[in-house]
Amino acid sequence: MPFDIKKTVRPNILTLEPYRCARDDFKTGILLDANENTHGPALTELSKSEQVLELNRYPDPHQAELKQQIINFRNKKPNKFVKDIEANKLKIGNLCLGVGSDESIDMLLRCVCQPGKDKMLICPPTYGMYSICATVNDVEIVKLPLTTPGFQIDIEGIASKVTGDPNIKLVYLTSPGNPTGKLLAVADVIQLLEKVAPVWNGFVIVDEAYIDFTISPDSNYSESMSTLVNEHENLVVLQTLSKSFGLAGIRLGVTFCSEKLSYYLNSMKYPYNISSLTSDVAIRATGEETGLATMSKYVANIIEQRDQLLKNLLALDGVGNNIGGLDSNFLLVEIVDKDGKPSNEVAQALYNTLAVDNQVVVRFRGKELNCTGALRVSVGTEEENKILIEKFVKCLAEVRK
Ligand SMILES: Cc1ncc(COP(=O)(O)O)c(C=O)c1O
């Protein structure tokens, strides 16, 4: 039973065809086909760029220009595990865009999992939205923890779970992980894909929200697995403009997958999910001249700041080990009690005091599996990090009295 997409996608989704509008065929002239307001947006003032965007019109449902820029960017640095780079280059047909990767996560669940019947596997500690989306869709969650130390996948464990239960249809992996900050070994994920493909009709999804923080500017290869989707039909990769591109506010997520799966995802998405404002900014951000260099510059800066911040945090009395990896734009550090033991009580008190009395907000993650006493700290600007350290010193002394 080799992997068969028709046995993986829900039968009702297999019957869908993409929504079509008159504008797919005719784009110019007097446009009276979509019941838009031809008199214009209800705003007393419009900036020049807003005028150009014609906000009274529906946005482009296909977003070909944006998709082309995204694949140009990823194709430039294929993953080193791609066997045939030329034949397997990403094409526009490999992409589906979503309202942040949160929409992409939900869309995959709705595409594949039958409510009340199918299941999805996650590897804690991991991103919380997978469980929320699964619960909303009435999809049972099966858990198989990341191995420790190192927060990597248990290849044999996952393979045995999914092959033992055909109702498990999706495996959600996060690389680099949240809250782990640790890149998964690409060789491990490929081993898993190859091991399960002949015997399991399901998808392995690799959420790469933080992938650009692992990219070394002087290498020809990227750690991103996005360029592997044409070699592994059971692989799906998610990315977002919310992190490295600094555009959490525009809500743009990207699903990379086989052209076959992408056809179904694009058929089920709401046709106008990407707004004209979002696509305008996203096109500028992913453009060679207009955004990519700035993204790389900020990423390099964040990495430099992250390393300095870690050094400063680890030097503090009350901060134990860095239990996460260094593949992301945040740190996961243990807060310890007076005996040097990781403590949720102290970490939670520190978290509260920092936020309530000192206006510094980090994230308590101590309740996540194998994260006892952990605080997750996003890397700030140089100035913010300086204040964070000062406040940490003051608050740690207070809560560890
Ligand atoms: C692993 C992971 N995936 C996805 C997201 C959500 O991304 P978006 O803003 O594109 O919805 C986050 C946000 O924190 C995340 O940590």
Automatic annotation (TrEMBL):
Pathways per UniProt: Amino-acid biosynthesis; L-histidine biosynthesis; L-histidine from 5-phospho-alpha-D-ribose 1-diphosphate: step 7/9
Enzyme class of the recorded protein, top EC level: transferase
A biological-process GO annotation: L-histidine biosynthetic process
InterPro entries: Aminotrans_II_pyridoxalP_BS, Aminotransferase_I/II_large, HisP_aminotrans, PyrdxlP-dep_Trfase, PyrdxlP-dep_Trfase_major, PyrdxlP-dep_Trfase_small
Organism superkingdom: Eukaryota
Domain Aminotransferase class I/classII large: from-to ranges: 29-391
Molecular function GO labels: histidinol-phosphate transaminase activity; pyridoxal phosphate binding
Keywords attached to this entry: Amino-acid biosynthesis, Aminotransferase, Histidine biosynthesis, Pyridoxal phosphate, Transferase
Cofactor list: pyridoxal 5'-phosphate
UniProt catalytic activity: L-histidinol phosphate + 2-oxoglutarate = 3-(imidazol-4-yl)-2-oxopropyl phosphate + L-glutamate
EC number of the protein: 2.6.1.9
Matching Pfam families: Aminotran_1_2
PANTHER family linked to this entry: HISTIDINOL-PHOSPHATE AMINOTRANSFERASE, HISTIDINOL-PHOSPHATE AMINOTRANSFERASE-RELATED
Family label: Belongs to the class-II pyridoxal-phosphate-dependent aminotransferase family.
Protein name: histidinol-phosphate transaminase
Species per Swiss-Prot/TrEMBL record: Scheffersomyces stipitis (strain ATCC 58785 / CBS 6054 / NBRC 10063 / NRRL Y-11545) (Yeast)
Gene: HIS5
